[in-house]
Every structure is written in structure tokens, then in C-alpha cells.
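FAQ: What does the model actually see?

It sees only this:
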Amino acid sequence: MFSILNVRLVEGDLTAEARIRDAALARFPRDGFEGTTVRAIADDAGVSAALVVHHYGSKEGLRKACDAYVVDRIRTVKGEIIESDSLTDPSAIAGGFQIAEPLMRYLGWALATGSDAAASLFDELVDESVRLTELAEEHGAMVAGPDVRTRAAVMLSMQMGALVLQDHLRRYLDIDPLSVEGVMAISRATLEIFSGAMFAPGQAEAIREALEVAIENTRKESSDG
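And it is asked to produce this:
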């Protein structure tokens, strides 16, 4: 499955610009956007506040850069796995589970804010999920569906829920959902759900057929009304 829970940071990216971005990825979820200052980010990155402004223009510009970085990492990591047909390669899976916790924590925070920025980030993630789904279909890893956009949006929303609700998962399951162990457990459960492995043989197909009939009947009732 194309879980966003195993996205890695760029290894060895130690430029001042990258350090500022990484500091913001960690600071925003902890203090909130309003509570985070450019000075605090600069101190965390070991640079001057002036250099933060030089690279990103403003705190809002820095947030946009963090959002863009998240989307880019998903695009790069997931694209590499799909194009190399490594979805069933144990070593590739194990490598993917070496997650970047600050990035995942940032994603959960950013999408839960209810801001215009959160809406834009979600839209970008869905668009990228659509692209990755279509790529997976081309490589024979996924079965084509009648509405790839809706499927991608729902799948992404389910995966995002694990990040937004990470504190509840941590409490209820007594496991850190952002640890390697936690990500593996969540990914396994997600695979069971998405693959229909939770249902008895033939049950998922029977439910799907009943759902299609219900959808068609609802459409007819709406048009008649």
C-alpha cells in the first residue's frame, strides 16, 4: 500500500536552508504557527533570523516551503518504490519504514489546523495520490477503479487520520504510531482493510455489488424526484 507513513527525510541535507526547514518542521507542531517565531526557528537551526528571512522571506513562506517539501518527499519516495516494482521487496519495505518522525508529526499538525494552508496541502496530497495510484495501475500493482480521484482522496484521508489522531492511537494501542514498530502495525492493519482481507471469502464482492445497486437506485430516485 502507498502509506504516507513511511516517508524519509533527505539524508545528508545539511545546508543552512535545509536546517532552517527541518527546524520549522519540528517547531510548528510543537508551538503552533502563531506561537512559533522566526527567532526560535533560527536558534534551532543555528543561524541568524536574517538568514531565515533571506531564504524564505517570512514565516508564511517557510510554512509553504515545508508543505512543498512534504509533498515532494512523498512524490519521490513513493515514485521510486512503484517504478522499481519494489512493493513486495522486504528490504525496500524495511527501508521505507525508517521514517522521518518530524515530517510525519508536521503532516498531522498541518492538516488538523483547519486553515487555508491546510486545505491547499490536502489538495496537493490528493493530486499526488491520484498520480501515484495511476502509476501503480500502470505497473500492475493496483486494480483500476471507476473513480480514481475519489478512491485516492478516501485512501489518503484514512491514512492521514492515523497522523491527526496519533495521540489517541498512542494511548489506546500503547504504541508510538510514529515509531518503526508503530508504522509497521498501522501499515499491516491498513493493508488488511484496503485489500478486503477483513471479510469472509466472497463477502467483499457481495457488498460491492449491493453498493453499486444502492448507488444506481439512489440516482434513479433523485432523477425521478
